[in-house]
């Protein structure tokens, strides 16, 4: 049995950060990974999907500028877009392995399972087993998998998840998308702009991106329609049929039959804990691992089991998981640290065109939390910088203000590139900066960031 201070199960960005920061604090760490180092984000989610979205975004931005629009004579080169995707997300983790080992972390290849307190059994690719013991803690960072809804025929139809969609070798002529969350809207737009002749998106709720402000759904739905995506809201696919591996897929929506070449399932995520050995430590296999603000697993005695990133269900976002990873390493090193931002300052960006960027509360979630709030709303591009950005662009910005403290507790923006403006709102929320102070943060002219001035003017400043 090998012994280290900290064992991290899961070698995605979150696990890598937890292990490396533990070593920075003088602890020894082993990182266990059974697939590719870098995880879902590097190969099947964040990076490849953005590589597929970027060409269409650039082309649309140029077309919005009248003096440049005439120079656009073609469409997105899908072949080169897929090649660029491969450059960002080739299924080779050699560089990642070199980084991990260079950080002083011991890399253990194989599938890790909890065998008891501080005890992990690793099954290596060749079938051999290695036993690891942690003197201080085991940190679970195994992330999530795509959730597959119980639609008859879906499994037999070899439906795509985000993995197959982001690593596809060709653009399907016709694509069906089940689910109107982040993955669904991003990839529907990506494939429409890459050349899919027909894209249909089916969402059971009455709006897209239903956890965000209602105007987000309107702006994104309008953009998808502009790109030729057919959006069906309040609809459900009752059955999926694919009679042969290379045959088209038939989607049954009530009395209607829709034929596509591939169907993408984007209906949410489930924790990757089915085969983690949770039953050996009193937890439920297949469930999220609940944690406190120090990321300690709830219901496990001895303060030795921690969970970071998507697997704890707090905020299924790579950047939030990496923040938690740094927090847990600090905790294990004896420092006072808390992942309190998970409760009110979660940042999120949807990389559609227009982009969606949000931090903290929506108006609905703030009121549900018992806060007395007022709202401020402006057009994102209703300023000189926005006028210069191009014609026919859309965007809305809404801020949520806590009446009792006179501080921002939430902000949501839609518009071109608004993800790059989100950090200003994040700093204001995390720093609890009163609006009377924010008034003195003067945005430069002529930039779209003057929207913050317009918001404050609405509040009487």
Oligomeric form: single chain
Helix content class:
25-40%
Number of helical regions? 15
The CATH topology name of the largest domain reads FAD/NAD(P)-binding domain
* Helix/strand/pairing category: alpha/beta
Distance between the termini: 65 Å
Strands, count: 21
Which helices and strands, and how do they pair?
Layout: E1 2-9, H1 13-24, E2 29-33, H2 39-43, H3 46-63, H4 66-69, H5 78-88, H6 94-102, E3 106-109, E4 111-116, E5 119-123, E6 129-140, E7 144-146, H7 162-166, E8 174-178, H8 182-194, E9 198-203, H9 214-226, E10 229-233, E11 239-241, E12 249-253, E13 256-260, E14 262-265, E15 269-271, E16 305-307, H10 318-332, E17 347-350, E18 355-360, H11 363-368, E19 373-379, H12 384-389, E20 396-402, E21 407-415, H13 422-430, H14 435-438, H15 451-458
Parallel strand pairs: 1-2, 1-6, 2-3, 6-16, 8-9, 8-14, 9-10
Antiparallel strand pairs: 4-5, 5-6, 7-15, 11-12, 12-13, 17-18, 18-21, 19-20, 20-21
Helix pairs in contact: 1-10, 3-5, 3-8
Walk me through what this model shows.
This protein is globular. It is built from 15 helices and 21 strands. Strands 1, 2, 3, 4, 5, 6 and 16 form a seven-stranded mixed beta sheet that branches. The chain starts with a strand and ends with a helix. Helix content is 30%, strand content 25%. The mean pLDDT is 97. The relative contact order is 0.12. The longest helix is centred in the first third of the chain and has 18 residues, at 46-63. The protein folds into three domains: 2-44 and 89-145 and 270-343, FAD/NAD(P)-binding domain; 162-267, 3-Layer(bba) Sandwich (FAD/NAD(P)-binding domain); 354-458, Enolase-like, domain 1, CATH 3.30.390. It is of the alpha/beta class.
């Amino acid at each position: 049995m090998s012994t280290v201070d900290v064992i991290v199960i899961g070698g995605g960005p979150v696990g890598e950060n937890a292990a490396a920061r533990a070593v920075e604090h003088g602890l020894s760490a082993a990182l266990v990974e059974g697939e590719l180092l870098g995880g879902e984000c590097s190969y099947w989610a964040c990076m490849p999907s953005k590589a597929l979205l970027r060409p269409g975004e650039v082309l649309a931005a140029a077309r919005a500028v009248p003096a440049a629009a005439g120079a656009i004579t073609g469409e997105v080169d899908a072949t080169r877009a897929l090649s660029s995707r491969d450059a960002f997300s080739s299924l080779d983790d050699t560089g990642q392995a070199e980084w991990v080992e260079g950080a002083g972390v011991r890399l253990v290849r194989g599938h890790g399972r909890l065998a008891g307190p501080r005890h992990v059994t690793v099954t290596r690719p060749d079938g051999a087993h290695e036993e690891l013991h942690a003197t201080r803690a085991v940190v679970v960072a195994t992330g999530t998998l795509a959730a597959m809804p119980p639609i008859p025929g879906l499994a037999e139809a070899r439906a795509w998840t985000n993995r197959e969609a982001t690593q596809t070798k060709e653009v399907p002529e016709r694509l069906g998308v089940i689910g109107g969350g982040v993955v669904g809207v991003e990839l529907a737009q990506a494939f429409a702009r890459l050349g899919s002749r027909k894209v249909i998106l089916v969402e059971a709720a009455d709006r897209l991106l239903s956890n965000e402000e209602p105007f987000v759904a309107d702006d994104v739905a309008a953009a998808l329609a502009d790109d030729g995506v057919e959006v069906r809201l309040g609809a459900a696919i009752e059955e999926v049929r694919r009679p042969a591996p290379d045959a088209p897929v038939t989607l049954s929506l009530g009395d209607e039959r829709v034929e596509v070449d591939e169907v993408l399932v984007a209906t949410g995520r489930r924790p990757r804990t089915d085969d983690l050995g949770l039953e050996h430590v009193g937890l439920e296999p297949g469930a999220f691992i609940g944690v406190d603000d120090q990321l300690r697993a709830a219901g496990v005695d001895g303060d030795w089991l921690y969970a970071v990133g998507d697997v704890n269900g707090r905020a299924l976002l790579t950047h939030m998981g990496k923040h938690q990873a740094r927090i847990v390493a600090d905790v294990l090193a004896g420092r006072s640290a808390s992942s309190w931002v998970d409760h009110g300052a979660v940042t999120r960006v949807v990389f559609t065109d227009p982009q969606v960027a949000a931090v903290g509360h929506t108006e609905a979630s703030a009121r549900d939390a018992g806060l007395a709030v007022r709202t401020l709303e402006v057009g994102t591009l209703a300023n000189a910088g926005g006028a210069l950005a191009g014609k026919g662009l859309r965007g809305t910005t809404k801020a949520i203000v806590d009446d009792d403290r006179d501080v921002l507790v939430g902000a949501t923006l839609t518009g071109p590139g608004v993800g790059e403006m989100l950090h200003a709102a994040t700093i204001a929320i995390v720093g609890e900066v009163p609006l009377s102070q924010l008034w003195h943060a003067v945005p430069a002219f002529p930039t779209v960031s003057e929207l913050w001035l317009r918001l404050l003017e609405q509040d009487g400043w």
